[in-house]
Amino acid sequence: MSESEPESGSQERIAVVLPDGSKLEVDADATVEDCAYEIGPGLGSDTVAGKLDGDLVAKEQPVYDGAELEIVTDDGGEEYLRVMRHSASHCLAQAVERLFDDDEVKLAIGPPTDEGFYYDFDNLDVDEDDLAEIETEIEAIVEADYEIEREAVSIDEAKERLEDEPYKLELLAEFADENEQVTFYKQGEWEDLCAGPHVDSTGEIGAVELLEIAGAYWRGDEKNEMQTRIYGTAFAEESDLEDFLERKREAEKRDHRRIGNEMNLFSIQDVTGPGLPLYHPPGKTVLKELEDFVEDLNQDADYDYVETPHVFKTDLWHRSGHYENYADDMFIFDVGDDEFGLKPMNCPGHAAIFQDQSWSYRDLPIRYAENGKVYRKEQRGELSGLSRVWSFTIDDGHLFIRPDQIRSEVEQIMDMITDVLETFDLEYEMALATRPEKSVGSDEIWKKAEDQLRSVLEDREHDYEIEDGDGAFYGPKIDFAFEDAIGRSWDGPTVQLDFNMPERFDLSYVGEDNEEHRPVMIHRALYGSYERFFMMLIEHYEGKFPFWLAPEQLRVLPISDENLGYAYEIAGEFEQFRVEVDDRDSTLERKIRAAHDDRVPYQIIVGDNEEDDGNISVRDRFEDQEYDVEIDEFKRHLEAERDERRTEPDFLQD
RNA sequence: GCCUGGGUAGCUUAGAGGUAAAGCGCGUCCUUGGUAAGGACGAGAGCCCGGGUUCAAAUCCCGGCCUAGGCUCCA
After folding, report:
1. Could you give the ipTM of this predicted complex?
2. What is the rounded distance in angstroms from the CA atom of residue A647 to the CA atom of residue A629?
3. DSSP state, A63?
4. Given this model, what pLDDT does residue A310 score?
5. Cβ of A129 less than 7 A from strand B
6. A184 has which bridge partners?
7. CB atoms < 10 A from the CB of A450, how many?
8. Is the CB of residue A414 less than 8 Å from the CB of residue A495?
9. Which fold is adopted by the domain A13-73?
10. Contact call for residues A498 and A522 (beta carbons, < 8 A)
C-alpha cells in the first residue's frame, strides 16, 4: 500500500502503458479494473488483479500516470496462481482459527510464495497429524464458496478490529505512517488485514495441499520469537497438483544423498562427526577423475603444485586478517602454549610460500595450485549432505603477478573455467562484481583491474551482468553461475583479484627498475569445491555419470556359468577401463537389471555365440544393444569416449 | 543456534507397552539361463546414546547426539 495518491479534484486524464507498449488514456481516479473495462468488457469482468510496474495489486487499486499496467485474469497463469494461493493461505488461517482456540492463536503473515503459500501463527501447537484435519476444513471453506470481500478501513477502525492481534497491530503501526486507510479481506465469518489481491470467492480455489510445518522467526529475525509456519500449495486443477507432487518426488529421486548411498560414493556418519564426509572407493574414483581433469588443465597452464598443512599457528591467521574477520567460522584450539587453527582458506599458506624467497619481475607470473582441504565451522542447521559441509576441498589456485599481467592471466583462467563447464554440458552466466564501499587498494589499481576484467568479458560472446559494489573488499571478481539439469543455479568457479593479501604479507618482486614492487594476487577455482561440484554432478546426471567419470565403466555379463571363462578373458581385454564381471548365479535378466540399477554405462554380454565367434554383444544404459561387436572396435570407441570426456555413452547412439 | 518431523538388519521401510517384521542385497543349494526380478533354505538387529516411569520400554517421559525440511520472495 505505498501507491502515490492520484491527483484529486480534477477531471484530469492520465495514461497507462499496456504490455504491448500502447497507451491507454483513463480518468485520473481510474482503478485497475476500470482500465480493464476500458480495454474491453470481457476483460473487465474477467479481471482478478493487476500488475502495476511489476507489482501485483488488487483490481480496486487506482492506477497512476505512466504506470505499466498488466491485467491479471483467471487464465491459470503464474500471476493468477499467486493470487489464488494468497486466498488459499487465508483459507488456511480461517481453518486454523476454526479448529484451534482463536483467542490463543495469533495471526502473523500469510503470503504466496513461488511454490505455494504459508501462514505464520503464534501460540499454535500443531503436528503433522493435524494437517489432514486442517486440510478437510479448508476444503469445506472452499466448498462453501464464500465471497471474498474487500473493504477499505480507517487506521483507527483497523486498530479496533485488530486489538487481539498483536502482530497485525505491529504491521498496522508501520502502515499508519504512510496511509490513511488500510484494506481488509473478509470471507464468511473471517477477516484479515491484507493488501490483496484475492480471487472473487473461496470456491475459485482448486486443489489445496498442506505440505509441512516449520518454525520461522517473526520477520525472519532470530532475535524475535519463533512462530509456527504451515506451508501449503494450491493449483487450479487437481492434475496440476499431482504434477507438482510428482516433480517433488523426481527431485527427491535425484537427491545426491540418496544416490550417494545407493552407489556407495560417500557417507557422513554419526561417529565421525557432522559435515565431515567420508569418500568410499567408488566416490573417490569419481573425485580422482575430476582431480586429474583439473590437473591436466593446470599443467597446460603452467601451474606448480604445492601442498600445505591443514592446521597452522594462528600467527598466520592474524597476518592474513582471517583472525579478525573470520574467526567465528574457524576451528581454533590450543596446543600447549600456542594457539592453532584449521585452515578455512588456502591463500595464506600459498602467500607464505611465495614470501619465502625473492622474486624478479622475470619470474612472474608464479602460479600455485593445490587441492586444498579447508575447514569452516558453519552453523549446524546449515549443514546438508555434500552441499554444505565442515570440511571440503578447493581446487585452489593462487597467482602472483605483475599488474600488467592481469588481463592475460584472467583470460587464461576464464578459458579453463569455460572448458570445465562445457565439458559437463552446463549452461552458465558470468557476472562482474565491482568495488564495494569498504575496500583496500588505490583508486588507480581498482580502476585498472575492473577495466581489464570488463574488457576480458567484452571480448567473450557471452553476456554478463554487473554486480555493482559486490566485489570482495580486496579486489574485483568474476563469478560464474551455472545451471544443472533440473534448472537449479549454482555458484562455483570464480576469478578474484586481490590487492590486500600482498599488502598484509608484504609480498614483493624486483622490477626492471631495480625497485621493489607489490605483486597482485589472483585467487581462482575451477570447480569451486569438489564437494559441492560432486554433489551437483550426482544430481545433474542422476548418478548416471559420463563414461570417463563412472566408478564402474563396464560390466561383463556371462549368459551362463559355461561362459565365465570367456567373460574373464573379455574383462582382461578391457583392463584399461574399470570393468567388473557379474559372476553371480542368476539369470541374464537379473544381471541386466542389476547393471542398470547400478548405473553402469555399458554392459558386455557374452554367451556361446559370442564365445564361438570371438566377439561380444554391447548394451548401453539406454537399453540399446548390438550383437557381433568386434572387441578392438569397441575398445577404440571407449578410448575416444573417455579421452574426449563425452557426456553420454554413444557407441550405440550414432 | 532456533522450530517441526525422523533415527528399527548392509539398503528401503513396517511395527507404537507383552517372543522384533517385510522387500532388496548377502550366503548355501537346486537351476545354466539370450536381453529389466526362476526357485528353496539360511545368516544378518546394542531398535541412535544416557537417564526415568513400569512387573514389563524399540514403543511412554526427560536430556543428549545425528539427520531432513524451515527460519522476512514484507498485511
Report:
1. 0.87
2. 22
3. P
4. 92
5. no
6. A151, A193
7. 19
8. yes
9. Ubiquitin-like (UB roll) (3.10.20)
10. yes
Beta-bridge mates of residue A483: A427, A489
Q: Whole-number Å distance, CA A455 to C1' B73?
A: 34
Nearest-CA residue relative to C1' of B28:
A585
> Mean pLDDT across chain A, nearest whole number?
85
Rounded to two decimals, the pTM is 0.80
Alpha carbon distance A386, A533 (integer Å): 9
Q: For the sheet containing A464-467, what is the strand order?
A: A304-305, A366-375, A391-401, A520-529, A489-498, A477-483, A427-433, A464-467
Each residue's pLDDT tens digit, A108-164: 888 888 778 888 888 777 766 677 778 888 888 888 888 888 887 787 877 788 778
Q: What is the homologous superfamily of the domain A79-250 according to CATH?
A: Threonyl-trna Synthetase; Chain A, domain 2 (3.30.980.10)
pLDDT tens digit sequence for A406-419? 989 999 999 999 99
**Domain A273-541's class?**
alpha beta
- Å between CA of A450 and C1' of B67: 44
E-assigned strand segments in A155-224:
181-187, 190-193, 207-217
Euclidean distance between CA atoms A198 and A194, whole angstroms: 9
- Which three cell numbers mark A333? 584450539
Q: Is A398 annotated as a binding residue?
A: yes
A461 touches strand B (CB under 7 A): no
CATH number of A554-643: 3.40.50.800
Question: What is the secondary structure of A242-284 as a DSSP string?
Answer: HHHHHHHHHHHHH-HHHHHHHTT-EE--TTT-TT--EE-HHHH
Domain limits, chain A = 13-73, 79-250, 273-541, 554-643
